[in-house]
Amino acid sequence: MSDCIFCKIDRGGIPAEKVHEDGDLFVIRDINPQAPTHLLIIPKRHIPTLLDLEDADLPVIGRVYDVANRLAREHGFEKSGYRVVVNCGAGAGQSVFHIHYHLLAGRAMKWPPG
Ligand code: 5GP
Ligand code: ZN
After folding, report:
1. CB of residue 17 inside a 6 A radius of ligand 1
2. What residue ranges do the domains of the chain occupy?
3. Do the beta carbons of residue 98 and residue 48 sit within 8 Å?
4. Which of 104, 94, 88 is nearest to 50 (CA)?
5. Residue 7 DSSP one-character state
6. Range 11-38 burial, b when 16+ CB lie within 10 A, else e
7. CATH of span 5-105
8. pTM for the complete prediction?
9. CA distances from 26 to 67, 97, 110 (A)
10. Is the Cβ atom of 49 under 6 angstroms away from ligand 1?
11. pLDDT tens across 60-114, in order?
């Protein structure tokens, strides 16, 4: 999608350091971090929300969690713990309508998240 921030970042139209990239997804640092480590794991296909997932996307969604685990080990927060969050819809706090998984770590997490 031409006017999507995350599609633009993927194409290099908006500068962002890619912490990880492969054929299916990429990872960037959140511009407004909510924890000492706040990464966004972003499938490359323009899927607006979790509700728009199709069967063909499901292997990529599995890979999101594999990449989260790899990042946890690489960045050394696999023992202290981390949170993976996806907001689905404006009412849940989604502001960028290209599916992405927040990976938060480096501080104690509260529950419920609010
Ligand atoms: P959402 O609110 O949709 O769950 O999460 C969107 C996230 O994208 C927010 O945490 C916001 O800070 C982040 N974000 C929005 N625009 C940009 C950008 O241009 N670059 C980066 N790195 N993050 C962004
Ligand atoms: Zn997009």
Report:
1. no
2. 5-105
3. yes
4. 88
5. H
6. eeeeebeebeeeeebbbbeeeeeebebb
7. 3.30.428.10
8. 0.97
9. 9, 16, 27
10. no
11. 999 999 999 999 999 999 999 999 999 999 999 999 999 999 999 999 999 999 7
d(CA 109, CA 99): 23
CA dihedral (87, 6, 25, 1) positive or negative: positive
In short, whether 28's Cβ falls inside 6 Å of ligand 1 is yes
**CB contact burial 93-103 (16+ within 10 A = b; e otherwise):** ebeebbbbbbb
* Residue length of the chain: 114
What single string gives the DSSP state of each residue in 39-104?
EEEEESS---SGGG--GGGHHHHHHHHHHHHHHHHHHT-TTT-EEEE---SGGGT--SSS--EEEE
**Ligand approaching nearest to the C-alpha of 43:** 2
In this structure, which residue's CA is closest to atom 18 in ligand 1?
Answer: 31
If phi > 0 it is left, if psi is from -120 to 50 it is alpha, else beta; for residue 70 that is alpha
For ligand 1, atom 21: residue with the closest CA: 31
d(CA 102, ligand 2 centre) in Å:
16
